[in-house]
Amino acid sequence: MSVSINKITVLGSGVMGHGIAQVSAMAGYNVTLRDIEQSFLDKAMEKIRWSLNKLVEKQKLSQQDADKIFARITPVVDLKTALKGADLLIEAVPEDMNLKKKVYAEVDSFAEDKTLYASNTSTLPITDMAALTSRPERFIGLHFFNPPQLMPLVEVIPGAKSNAGMVDMAMDYCKKVGKQPVLCKKDVPGFIVNRVFIPLVHEAVYCMERDNASMTQIDSAVKFRMSFPMGIFELADYTGLDVIHKATVEMHMRDAKVIFPHPKIKQLFDEKNLGQKTGKGFYEYKGDKYERVNLTEQEAATYNPIKLLAVAANNAAWLITNGVCDRAELEKALKLGMGLKKELFATMQEFGPQNVVKTLQELAAKYGQFYQPDPYLVSYRA
């Protein structure tokens, strides 16, 4: 299946939708951006204009190019009109299976035979979504990271019936829009990055309780001793506790063994303390400016983050054992999607693989199955 993609329709004009529309237009594609209300579209187009103007200010684009890119994006409310002539549809509506069901039923009644389907989801099963449509073999997951204009990674996830041509098309499209795709070979809960990241947030809360450690102690250790771009609580606040809670529920529903939820995440979600965006999550924030939490190497020295490292490495090992990706692709995804400054397995090497396995065995004996060390870790040799 060799397809040429010229016209792209993006469904949903929120943060992800308008970001995907912008990067596609910047790569030369003609884009139709569709949402259910004109006011949503007006807001999205304003944000795209603002983002392009920023690039002009930074002299990364000429005004003339920015105007051309902007002109390639057509906002449309009517779905039938939006799908006319589309080679590729990228759905970026909110992460709710019932909503997706409704959207795909409508899309299916209007889409032309040639249109290929992609969903920008961070956790929902691709195979289940594909089954809602009349073309499961021409359906794929494209998980862009937030914000799409800046984040280099896209996880490409085939469903059980996606054909090989869809994988080639998706990888090719990602490269054309200047992204680095990583193929997630199996449609598993959390795909690659969230399979490592989401359980880690819960583990950090357990560490705080079990080790009687403070948030800044844990965060300092995660940043300076595990080479993360920021602390794990800080990263959770930055991502949004709503995003983390929804991903947790979804992953747990698909396979209870892949995550060990701590009730604190749901509590913060229920209290609408969603992190940076609401002014309070794990930490409190003042004003609109993004503030960094004060983390220091001195404080990092007061806490050993081996339990967090062990859980991250164990989930990473699970991905390798289950044939979701190989170690090189895993490390690439964690570097680009989570901003790890050093490879996860290189960090594990520093702490000692046998110490990591021993930590997991002790945790498993005390707290259960979730911590059982993966065979890849048990037999790990650098």
TrEMBL record:
InterPro entries: 3-OHacyl-CoA_DH_NAD-bd (IPR006176), 3HC_DH_C (IPR006108), 6-PGluconate_DH-like_C_sf (IPR008927), 6PGD_dom2 (IPR013328), NAD(P)-bd_dom_sf (IPR036291)
Record-linked Gene3D superfamilies: N-(1-d-carboxylethyl)-l-norvaline Dehydrogenase, domain 2, NAD(P)-binding Rossmann-like Domain
Domain 3-hydroxyacyl-CoA dehydrogenase C-terminal: from-to ranges: 190-285
SUPFAM superfamilies, alphabetized: 6-phosphogluconate dehydrogenase C-terminal domain-like (SSF48179), NAD(P)-binding Rossmann-fold domains (SSF51735)
Source organism, top-level taxon: Archaea
GO biological process, one term: fatty acid metabolic process
Domain 3-hydroxyacyl-CoA dehydrogenase NAD binding: 7-187
Enzyme Commission number, as recorded: 1.1.1.35, 4.2.1.55
Keywords: Lyase, Oxidoreductase
Molecular function (Gene Ontology), one example: (3S)-3-hydroxyacyl-CoA dehydrogenase (NAD+) activity
UniProt name for this protein: 3-hydroxyacyl-CoA dehydrogenase
Organism: Candidatus Nitrososphaera evergladensis SR1
